[in-house]
């Protein structure tokens, strides 16, 4: 059994104990867009020619990766799931469209069919996931409910209990906890929930029909964990060790295997596998759209810069990109100087005489960052991510702030979580620590929905932020 907590509050679940869940995740969810395509072709009275068959196959293959496993959502998050489906579908549709264009088959397709299909799939997928939830919950009621105990009344243990109770497909009922600490130290845990000390665990499991034991003790108590497992070896209960990876202040913690050797990721980028593809496709789509809309503004800004002060319209500055590699970032010139960021750099200050009159307006509205859309298309930056700092600034703060360089596990962005939370200006130590905290939160919780929230908030913040000069 595997439970994965999503950052949007939903729970994705894949259960080896239930063939139904496997069928829904592997067949039903990917098949819904294909079924919708067939229905749209029939509704428009078009022929299901070879091009549609190619689209159907391509969509089915990609859908399981793009839509992922079934998202079990509460009413609070049900509309967020719809937005997430729309974003993922838009990217999948983009891949299918590019494939059809490159294959030369786009001309054989009906625009009415494709438009109807594009609009219908997110709704069908949303309804399908909701229906699948209801079906699975009803079907699994007949499965035996396994009783479980948790060893360690830690924050992790109590969080695990809440997650198990929130997911009906887990089919696990937590009876209580075993812990060696004094009840007064257990953080308000009800007395009835504490079943005893760990030396009573094996006997309790053997005589109370306990099917699952979760061990949530810290890794530092390895001897105690070994003794508990030894005591349980004559029981038939399934045993799970739940390590507290947050104790390491981890980034994108997860389990993986290397040639069948289990490994634990403590610090990793959120953009691996299909997430990397989704992020890149969304960057290309958004940057292309933004450039098509703002190109006339580019010409107007360039003219105003030329009229305001002598010097180039654009300048490029050396900053750190993905994995700390140096990149050249494009900006509209807002100062009378154009420091390269590596051999010469001084952060802007309030009342800085180097800032031109028109440059001050650009900086207040962040329009000086628009040329970085070309960096996004080129692949050195993203639309959303931690803001890149000049190379000299990075070298200064990596020695002063622990884990500072972790922010470079992803591509830098034109806007970011720190900027929309008020940590946009200032280069003092406290401001940089605050900015880093938001950047690391972004790395831990990334999702397409999170990026969309940041973009919407960016529009609201740009015209009201005063802590920039």
Please, could you describe this protein's structure?
This protein has helices at residues 19-43, 50-67, 78-103, 111-140, 155-166, 201-207, 222-231, 274-308, 357-365, 372-378, 391-398, 417-420, 429-445, 448-462; strands spanning 2-5, 11-14, 71-72, 146-151, 172-178, 194-196, 210-215, 238-241, 254-258, 261-265, 314-320, 326-332, 382-384, 413-415. It has 469 residues and is an alpha/beta fold. The strands form 5 sheets. A 5-stranded parallel β-sheet has the order 6-5-4-7-8, with helices on both faces. It has a 3-stranded antiparallel β-sheet with strand order 1-2-3. The model is unreliable at 1-17 (pLDDT under 50).
List keywords for this structure.
14 helices; alpha/beta; disordered N terminus; 5-stranded parallel sheet; 469 residues; 3-stranded antiparallel sheet; flat
How are the secondary structure elements laid out?
Elements: E1 2-5, E2 11-14, H1 19-43, H2 50-67, E3 71-72, H3 78-103, H4 111-140, E4 146-151, H5 155-166, E5 172-178, E6 194-196, H6 201-207, E7 210-215, H7 222-231, E8 238-241, E9 254-258, E10 261-265, H8 274-308, E11 314-320, E12 326-332, H9 357-365, H10 372-378, E13 382-384, H11 391-398, E14 413-415, H12 417-420, H13 429-445, H14 448-462
Parallel strand pairs: 4-5, 4-7, 5-6, 7-8, 13-14
Antiparallel strand pairs: 1-2, 2-3, 9-10, 11-12
Helix pairs in contact: 1-2, 1-4, 2-3, 3-4, 8-10
């Amino acid at each position: 059994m595997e439970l994965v907590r999503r950052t949007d509050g939903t729970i994705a679940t894949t259960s080896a104990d239930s063939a139904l869940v496997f069928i829904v995740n592997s067949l039903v969810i990917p098949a819904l867009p294909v079924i919708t395509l067939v229905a749209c072709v029939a509704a428009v009275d078009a022929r299901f020619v070879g091009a549609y068959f190619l689209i159907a196959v391509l969509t089915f293959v990609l859908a399981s990766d793009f839509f992922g496993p079934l998202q079990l959502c509460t009413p609070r998050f049900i509309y967020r799931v719809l937005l997430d489906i729309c974003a993922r579908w838009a990217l999948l549709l983009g891949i299918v469209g590019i494939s059809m264009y490159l294959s030369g088959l786009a001309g054989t397709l009906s625009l009415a069919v494709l438009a109807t299909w594009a609009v219908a799939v997110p709704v069908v997928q949303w309804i399908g996931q909701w229906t699948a939830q209801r079906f699975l919950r009803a079907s699994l009621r007949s499965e035996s409910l396994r009783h479980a105990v948790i060893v360690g009344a830690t924050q992790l243990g109590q969080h695990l209990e809440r997650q198990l109770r929130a997911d009906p497909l887990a089919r696990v009922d937590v009876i209580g906890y075993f812990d060696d600490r004094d009840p007064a130290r257990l953080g308000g845990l009800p007395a009835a929930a504490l079943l005893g000390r760990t030396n009573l665990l094996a006997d309790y499991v053997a005589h109370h029909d306990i099917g699952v034991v979760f061990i949530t003790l810290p890794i530092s108590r390895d001897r105690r964990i070994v003794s508990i497992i030894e005591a349980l070896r004559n029981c038939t209960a399934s045993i799970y060790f739940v390590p507290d990876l947050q104790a390491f202040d981890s980034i994108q913690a997860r389990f993986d295997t290397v040639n069948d050797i289990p490994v634990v990721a403590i610090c990793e980028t959120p953009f691996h596998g299909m997430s990397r593809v989704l992020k890149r496709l969304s960057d290309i789509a958004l940057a292309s759209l933004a450039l098509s809309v703002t190109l006339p503004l580019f010409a107007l800004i360039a003219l105003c810069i030329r009229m305001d002060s002598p010097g180039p319209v654009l300048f490029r500055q050396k900053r750190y990109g993905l994995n700390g590699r140096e990149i050249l970032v494009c900006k509209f010139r807002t100062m009378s100087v154009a420091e390269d960021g590596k051999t010469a750099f001084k952060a802007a200050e309030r009342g800085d005489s180097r800032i031109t009159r028109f440059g001050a307006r650009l900086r207040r509205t962040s329009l000086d960052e628009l040329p970085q859309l070309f960096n996004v298309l080129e692949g050195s930056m993203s639309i959303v991510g931690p803001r890149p700092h000049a190379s000299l600034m990075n070298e200064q703060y990596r020695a002063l702030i622990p884990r500072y360089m972790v922010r470079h596990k992803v591509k830098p962005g034109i806007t970011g979580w720190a900027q929309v939370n008020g940590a946009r200006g200032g280069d003092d130590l406290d401001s940089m620590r605050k900015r880093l905290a938001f950047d690391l939160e972004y790395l831990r919780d990334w999702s397409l929905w999170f990026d969309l929230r940041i973009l919407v908030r960016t529009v609201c913040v740009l015209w009201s932020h005063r802590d920039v000069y």
